[in-house]
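Duplicate of earlier report; Enoyl-CoA hydratase/carnithine racemase input re-posted below.
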Amino acid sequence: MTERRMIGPTKFEEYSEKYKEFLLMTRRDGIIEVRLHTDGGPYKHSWEAHTAWSHAWSDIGRDPENEVMIISGTGDKWVIGDPEVWNTKFMDWPKQKKLEQYHESLRLLENLIFCIDIPTIGAVNGPGTHCELATLCDITICTEDADFFDPHYLGGTPPGDGMLLTLQSMIGFKKAAYYAYTGKNINGQTALDLGIVSEVLPREQLLPRAWELAEMIMQAPRSTRHLSHSIISRPWKQALVSDQGFQLAHQMYDMAIDEEGALERLKKMQGRLMGKDVQ
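Output:
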């Protein structure tokens, strides 16, 4: 009988190098830290990184040497929104690119939840958009100046790519609707009061505390860690299956018929997107 050749997972050395332009990865004693960044500083949103994230979650999740994952940002910002990514109106994107954007937007969150079988810790290191990457983690901590801000409705687009979905699940439909329509800042203390995060810390204490929590989690047996994560993440799996595709389709349909485009509307709130004027 011919022995079958099994195709193993990608090694840490390979995928950490592959995604280093968008994600800086370090690993120690089974704990992998993944930091969003652009040129070594705060991450500035781009479609290239948007695509890379979903692939990275898959590679990280398939590596059996990863036992706990920490997701954080770099410097004093979590994510800097960039209106210029909409320099070409979505309405004018080629049909194939629109389809690819739909699938990639789904995978960005789906792969984080369905491909990662280990405990996860989100450490929001400052203001910025796309906080759903951290709130989908098992444990979420943040700095005092974090800004859980969903810019979509204020930018003239339905909020369908994940932030509202996570808020609906965490704080309820009525409160989530209020924050979606008003775009009101949810700072660290408010996020703690609402139950979005579990701890609020000064920035210099954030990552050390994330590692402390990860090391505490590592004290349990491996099967306990993996199966506990499976239980804890199940509500997110249910929410994504039930509503993510529905919400995203509504957002992208509206973008596809938007003759004005989002660029000028987003430029008007550029201070918020850059992590400024977040009163």
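The chain has one domain: 14-273.

Merging into the original ticket.
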